[in-house]
């Protein structure tokens, strides 16, 4: 589709606030999708995590904002996880979409979404999109329909298919690496 622009915000700015509040007026949002909820959650919780990287993606169609993806990349036990803002404090974590949404109404493909994520978001190892309602405005959740889903009571789901030991130990301390190697040898002895 032509006439599509993507802008990533690495911090909350006045221009982002203006765009978000404009979309808020054009959308049927939950309180957890509002600019103020996300800004305050970021300011009071996520900003304390120095390894976290804010990545708020705004999609424009014909120069008008139509979708916002309020993402962050957070580190957890050596993994970089792409997730929506809000953490455990948020009941619903979704994109913000207007009636002109590219994601919702224009059959925006999963491939196109992943391309945007992979080019616009800081490097991540896996995506975890939690607290997704099954229905939005009495229709199936358009965001969930785009991705393979795993239902689980476990809070962390890891795709081991794309993960190698060498990738995992990059930038780890020598002490950590030696400890892992010691544990591997110990496990090999007991088969």
Overview of the structural elements:
This protein has 191 residues and is of the alpha+beta class. The chain is built from six helices and eight strands; from the N terminus they run βααββββααβββαα. The protein has helices spanning 14-26, 35-44, 102-105, 110-120, 165-169, 174-189; strands at residues 4-9, 53-61, 64-76, 79-84, 96-97, 126-127, 135-136, 139-140. Strands 1, 2, 3, 4, 5 and 6 form a six-stranded mixed β-sheet that branches. It has a two-stranded antiparallel ribbon with strand order 7-8. The protein starts with a strand and ends with a helix.
What are the key terms here?
single chain; 191 residues; alpha+beta; 6-stranded mixed β-sheet; two-stranded antiparallel ribbon; 6 helices
Give the topology string: H per helix, E per strand: EHHEEEEHHEEEHH
Q: In whole angstroms, how far apart are the ends?
A: 54 Å
Q: Please, what is the oligomeric state?
A: single chain
Task: Look at the structure and give the mean pLDDT.
Answer: 78
Radius of gyration: 19 Å
The total count of strands amounts to 8
Query: Which structural class do you get from the secondary structure elements?
Result: alpha+beta
Number of helices: 6
Give the strand content: 15-25%
**Helix content percent band:** 25-40%
Please state the overall shape, judged from the principal axes of the Cα atoms: elongated
**Sheet having the most strands:** 6 strands, mixed
Unreliable residue runs:
152-158
Give a brief rundown of this model:
The chain is α+β, with helices and mostly antiparallel strands and 191 residues long. The protein has helices at 14-26, 35-44, 102-105, 110-120, 165-169, 174-189; strands at 4-9, 53-61, 64-76, 79-84, 96-97, 126-127, 135-136, 139-140.
